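To start, one record:
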Amino acid sequence: MVKKKKCRQYSNECLKYEFIPTLTNVQLPLCLVSNEAVKPSRLSDHLEKMHSDKVGKPISFFQGLKAKFENRSTVGKLFGKFALNADKGLLASYKVSLLISQCGKSHTIGETLVLPAVKEIVSTMLGPDTCAMVKSIPLSKETISRRIDGMAADVEENAFGRVNEHRICNNEEVVEERLFTGNVTTDTKGSSIYKRVEEFFQEKNIPLTNVLACAADRAASMIGRYCGFIVHLKSAIPGIMVVHCVIHRQHLVAKHLCERLHDVFSTSSITTMMKNSNVYS
């Protein structure tokens, strides 16, 4: 009958013989100087024969060797640190791009002003050695444009997802957000504006009948009786409700003002027209 082999387990007692567990398997012993066995007698023989100068050393001495071994520089640690800095630089690039977009500044301001300013601030406050970390932040004109386009596409996708799922309500609350802004490449006629809006809804697979109301100003291309945008929209959505845009609420207020103020406005308009004419040129 074959004798069953005893599998010894690593314990903290092995540390006084300068053995530590390996990083991949805690049951595999690893000598701080060489790799042998975990049997106590062999560990003691190994220490006395191979490292006699360390016999009788306190356990704190070997704990120091262990700490040095664990804190040594390795290729994995170097690449891990580089990857961590790259991830932080990427996140900082997105945050700066968002600020530039929100302020409406030119995309070139990232590499011409923001990055040099950050370098000066960091080098002054923390020392010149910290500038290397700032250099890992990509803020070129093309990078800023890609970041803004990517964030805009993500916001647009999330907005469309909410529209398809909840229409105008999200978590039992009415949500007011800008869905899209499009360019009219031909002219500003009501039919052209309606065509652009219709193409957008078809492109995103959103039924035009989901629109419940439309707010418009007093422009002829919007509220024209025969060919305005509202006429085309009502032909596609008969039950749509049309209201005056609150952004242009001054026109609604002016309707109910006194006649004397209307005369003042008329005189002011004539004066402005005369100043802009060739009479003063």
Q: What stands out?
A: The chain has a mean pLDDT of 76. The first helix runs from residue 40 to 50. Strands lie at 19-21, 29-31, 169-170, 173-174, 213-216, 241-244. The chain is about 55% helix and 5% strand.
